[in-house]
């Protein structure tokens, strides 16, 4: 990655870039990613793709940035600061996906986590329907890890996934597209919260007790940001997923109860309890 070794020698910091949308409610998107990077002691930078007017109840509006300007943000960050790892979240449109894919290739970003965000928990669309095919064809093959939830894995594979066996089948089908590591998240199944990682050889299960908590807004963004941070710190993929799973469990367990709807998790739970 660009000048990475030289930059680390100078600053001693691990760095991660998020390319995602802004959530005015602070629970998902860029805000979740930067809080997560900071909590995990990684210097975070960002390229904003779209600004949402959003809270814990839903998405009230989306203002998409020009694709060319998304590219300029990525240029500004990577030619100066660099990134040990990067992630994508809400990409919004075909044009933005194309710019992001081009920049990932131009700068040789190797540790790329793609969270194929399509629809918010509230049901609002965060990716144009016509962009799904482009995401699959142009960005997924550049990823080291992808982190679809059940619906996203279903859309990308044309299946209806409602069981762990279905998650395994989807993970294998997505690996066949050329993705080295596929993590299918099981947050929307009943029972334990089990995510499945497939690397082309073995299936690994990451399981945690399901927390009875409606405040799970931004869990997907937060998990993928934590994986990115641990990759930036040099962990191997399976270790990064295991560490990220512990992090999200704590963050959900200490969720803040902010707002009238589905509130954010506590990204800084390991540092302080709410109200202190
Ligand atoms: N109620 C819960 N208790 C414990 N873990 C959960 C819960 N809901 C989601 N998770 C975990 O949070 C992460 C995000 O999963 P998921 O909710 O499926 O993603 P998304 O937010 O993209 O829909 C996964 O590790 C999942 O297992
Ligand atoms: C700006 C923005 N990006 C992504 C999401 C979706 O986040 P996710 O972690 O999947 O959480 P939920 O929407 O499912 O709570 C978002 N809402 N906003």
From TrEMBL:
Broad class of enzyme this protein falls into: transferase
Keywords associated with the record: ATP-binding, Kinase, Nucleotide-binding, Thiamine biosynthesis, Transferase
NCBIfam families reported in the protein's UniProt record: HMP-P_kinase (TIGR00097)
InterPro entries xrefs: HMP/HMP-P_kinase_dom, PM/HMP-P_kinase-1, Ribokinase-like
Designated name of the protein: Hydroxymethylpyrimidine/phosphomethylpyrimidine kinase
Signal sequence range: none
PANTHER family recorded: HYDROXYMETHYLPYRIMIDINE_PHOSPHOMETHYLPYRIMIDINE KINASE THI20-RELATED (PTHR20858:SF17), PHOSPHOMETHYLPYRIMIDINE KINASE (PTHR20858)
Name of the encoding gene: thiD
Species name: Neomoorella humiferrea
């Amino acid at each position: 990655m660009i000048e990475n070794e030289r930059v680390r020698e100078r600053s001693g910091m691990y760095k991660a870039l998020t390319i995602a949308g802004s959530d005015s409610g602070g629970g998902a998107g860029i805000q979740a990613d930067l809080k997560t990077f900071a909590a995990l002691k990684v210097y975070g930078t960002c390229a904003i793709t779209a600004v949402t007017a959003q809270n814990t109840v839903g998405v009230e509006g989306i203002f998409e940035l020009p694709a060319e300007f998304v590219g300029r943000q990525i240029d500004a960050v990577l030619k100066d600061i660099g990134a040990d790892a990067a992630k994508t979240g809400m990409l919004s449109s075909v044009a933005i996906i194309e710019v992001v894919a081009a920049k990932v290739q131009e700068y040789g970003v190797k540790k790329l986590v793609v969270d194929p965000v399509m629809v918010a928990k509230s049901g609002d669309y965060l990716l144009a329907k016509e962009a799904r095919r482009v995401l699959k064809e142009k960005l997924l093959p550049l990823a080291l890890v992808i982190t679809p939830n059940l619906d996203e894995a279903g859309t990308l594979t044309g299946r209806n996934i409602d069981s762990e066996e279905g998650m395994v089948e989807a993970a294998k089908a997505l690996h066949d597209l050329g993705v080295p590591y596929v993590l299918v998240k099981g947050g929307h199944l009943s029972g334990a919260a089990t995510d499945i990682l497939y690397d082309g050889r073995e299936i690994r299960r990451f399981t945690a007790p399901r927390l009875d908590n409606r405040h799970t807004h931004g869990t997907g963004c937060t998990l993928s940001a934590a994986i990115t941070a641990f990759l930036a710190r040099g962990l191997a993929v399976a270790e990064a997923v295991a560490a990220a799973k512990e992090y999200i469990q704590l963050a959900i367990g200490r969720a803040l109860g902010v707002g009238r709807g589905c509130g954010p998790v506590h990204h800084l739970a390991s540092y302080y309890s709410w109200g202190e």
